């Protein structure tokens, strides 16, 4: 019961040990001392709340916000002491904001619960009591044996016990986990692979010992102990034995596996991304402004309290005849009385803090984020992928980016590899029509035929065909279930397709196949190749998996003749230092030449083992792989022991094409004032070549290098030389190239000097970077004194740390999996979309929310300042100027919708102009629209307008009047009700109209919705006031406003006052805008005039969703541009691209 309560409240009991013991089929030891470990059930919980904790948890999160907490305090003060306004005036807006937010978050969580229930209720089959039983997914327990059929997803993390194949293997895809669509082979241990029936599995006695759950998808350490005939057999378990929840079974009829991690302890669940905790610069500014307004509020409250006591120092005002003090008031403590008055004034002025600001900002961000997904220009037709928003909290940050950090492979390039050249035994070759042609020869040369390949060339091609983890998929769906070599006799290049997690591997295996050495499949531990028509079978003894630290992968094979050989391939820096024979220097030169051409290079080597050497190697690997503690470290030591004394065979050069419009995108970002840094793991020659071809480096740019530094002193001296060169040649642009090793030295002792050099360079290229180094570079810039806004963009798992570190993380939906996309704030299909995302959407989001924040503070200053001024005319008696209903509805109803619609649709400049003039992005950089100067302007404007509202009403309606005892005035021989509430209503009416029209003046892009909410809000105020004051409402115990509004509007002088005051407030604004636009226009204003004159022709781009696109087409027709009338209107794209049918217009 206690555990259930803890789970409902969101707590999880901690694990007691570092490893877990799982008894297969839950056959626990029979002795009485065994206490079963407790494991999580198999329910997936992606929801944030439960029925029991929703109210307290949601309220706690909402009241962590300073504005909500502040209004809660004000509400409690109103309940505890006698204050001039009803507690409803603070309580109702607070209740509204809290309720709206809670409903929104509750609805989102309900959707998550609904999705969870679908997953948890899915039918599954488990082995229990000697039979196959159907149950629900949530009922699976750790230790259950689960059956999964072909094309089904795994309901928990399972250790593979057996499959319908004799060798106990199965094929899976992990596309839903990491985006990789290739078939992966997973293995069972020999002792369990024979248990292919329920009866055999029920009799199986086995225990799995493994590590406790962790999020790493590619790491699993464990061992299985199988008891057969009283003897215990121990086998190691690794990632190749673990079937992850969410992966899908392919080309295998069925498998049986034992559940080791269930529910929220499965690796998929541990990789669920929590909502980003990043905060935008606008949000930080907003909080700073709130603190300033809090200080203003405290100042007004303290000043009013002091002035009240100063006024009451005179006897006649201390206790006037109409307000005699009670005995309790006379005997009360002066200090308590002062505090009580201070709190009363605090309540009276509390609306200067805009409570609805947060909820409006939330709605604006949430609704505004849909425009990114709807944008047709961010849709990639080939992959059928649209832009994706993972967090809407950072929309405006897209308009503030100063540094872009980008990966190279798969981000700037296509990650589609094509084999171009290779070097074998010191001789360069290129592929021509499926033949390897040596350098200097042509296809017609007599010695260029593939039949004349020497032993070295043949060994090189065999190494390329065998040293990989490529899988084969045939056109016939079930061919892999039987003999994978069944196609050998009728081998054809058309009936099989290679799948690989690395595009490099796939390109190399396909190239070897075209030349004549084709990999034809794997069966158990046997690999087969077809070498120029002759089939050869190799026994796969060991695979030394690739990892980022070693930067190489190897296989150990038994050749058809019985010999043992190791083939290895990897980066030249990871292979060449360990080679002892072969053409090392020639190969090094050729690798550098390939890199200068922009090719990705891999070096291939081998090592032949004697029987004694192989036995030693096998012993080292087995010991490392069966270790439960520090297995990774022991494996690294074993791999280093094996991968030495290598014979160099050659190297390959593979081309990775640039993505479309990369050069134009980088140039646009540069014109926008954004510095682009490329962070890549490639060698520096390749990286520099690609940087030059994509426009990151210009041909005229002076390239500075910080490479191969081996000591702190050497690194510091080189940095000083570079700094002097930059200062001496400050006229030309500089680019910096730095490698990972030198970067580590620079960041260790010379961080400040390194940053100085980098900031003075137009472009920076960091090569040979480890994933964590990428994140360190981003953090270095992010935390520098200038605090620039950073953006990181990448497509692979190695970019995740960089993406999470930057202020804004962009994932590219590429070919290296989906980890970058899952961990990003935004995801796009191609790098070229980054230009529009920043220059257009970023620009729009920033100006919208910046105006929203400033306008909110402005309208609240206008709202509460007359209340402060009114105290000077009522002896600081804390009398309210406005009716309590008006106090409550001002921010909720009368002025909320126009600014919300403005913040969703405003466009200062046409999107086409923003893209064609990237320099406009500079106008909004460094949070310029939320600078202290702009904030001060809006605040002072609010105070000025408030003074005009108050004193204008007072002067125009208060002269030559005779105030009667019954609150009426005699003027021009007619009676006009003009008491406290009439004056306050006049001020309120002028204020509502003025602040709404002020926003209308700020609006540049008018839609029907802007018109509807702007004029509709004013109309709603008048209609509401007429109904509220024109009817006696039985549920209101006092109705001070009865007939006040009707009488006010029946006065011509009141209408005259309203018009005069509004013109007085807004005319200076109009004059200022006209004068500035004509005498000193900004670049944005110039672009506005340009966009009004721009002629939209055949290169019109669909910049908005369907409804907006149709609207734009209607504008084009209105301007007289001829558009063909058709049922389906097609939007034409530039450069002759094919049009997109958007629907009937």
Automatic annotation (TrEMBL):
Q: What is its subcellular localisation?
A: Early endosome; Endoplasmic reticulum; Golgi apparatus, trans-Golgi network; Membrane
Q: Which residues form the active site?
A: 407 (4-aspartylphosphate intermediate)
Q: Where's the P-type ATPase C-terminal domain?
A: 821-1082
What GO cellular component entries does it have? early endosome; endoplasmic reticulum; Golgi apparatus; plasma membrane; recycling endosome membrane
Q: Which residues form the P-type ATPase N-terminal domain?
A: 36-90
Q: Which UniProt keywords apply?
A: ATP-binding, Endoplasmic reticulum, Endosome, Golgi apparatus, Lipid transport, Magnesium, Membrane, Metal-binding, Nucleotide-binding, Translocase, Transmembrane, Transmembrane helix, Transport
This protein's record includes keyword Methyltransferase: no
Provide one Gene Ontology biological process annotation.
Answer: phospholipid translocation
**Membrane topology (UniProt):** Multi-pass membrane protein
User: What positions does the domain P-type ATPase A occupy?
Assistant: 124-184
Cofactor names: Mg(2+)
Catalytic activity annotated for this protein?
ATP + H2O + phospholipidSide 1 = ADP + phosphate + phospholipidSide 2; a 1,2-diacyl-sn-glycero-3-phosphoethanolamine(out) + ATP + H2O = a 1,2-diacyl-sn-glycero-3-phosphoethanolamine(in) + ADP + phosphate + H(+); a 1,2-diacyl-sn-glycero-3-phospho-L-serine(out) + ATP + H2O = a 1,2-diacyl-sn-glycero-3-phospho-L-serine(in) + ADP + phosphate + H(+)
Q: What superkingdom does the record give?
A: Eukaryota
Q: Which InterPro entries does the record associate with it?
A: ATPase_P-typ_cyto_dom_N, ATPase_P-typ_P_site, ATPase_P-typ_TM_dom_sf, ATPase_P-typ_transduc_dom_A_sf, ATPase_P-type_domA, HAD-like_sf, HAD_sf, P-type_ATPase_IV
Indicate the segments annotated as coiled coil, or none if absent.
none
Q: Which residues are noted in the entry as ATP-binding? A: 407-409, 505, 546, 569, 600, 680-682, 768, 774, 798-799
Subunit structure, briefly? Component of a P4-ATPase flippase complex which consists of a catalytic alpha subunit ATP11B and an accessory beta subunit TMEM30A.
NCBIfam families listed in its UniProt record = ATPase-Plipid (TIGR01652), ATPase_P-type (TIGR01494)
Its function, per the record, reads: Catalytic component of a P4-ATPase flippase complex which catalyzes the hydrolysis of ATP coupled to the transport of aminophospholipids, phosphatidylserines (PS) and phosphatidylethanolamines (PE), from the outer to the inner leaflet of intracellular membranes. May contribute to the maintenance of membrane lipid asymmetry in endosome compartment.
Family, as annotated? Belongs to the cation transport ATPase (P-type) (TC 3.A.3) family. Type IV subfamily.
Q: What is this protein called?
A: Phospholipid-transporting ATPase
The scientific name of the source species is Austrofundulus limnaeus (Annual killifish)
Provide the organism lineage as a comma list. Answer: Eukaryota, Metazoa, Chordata, Craniata, Vertebrata
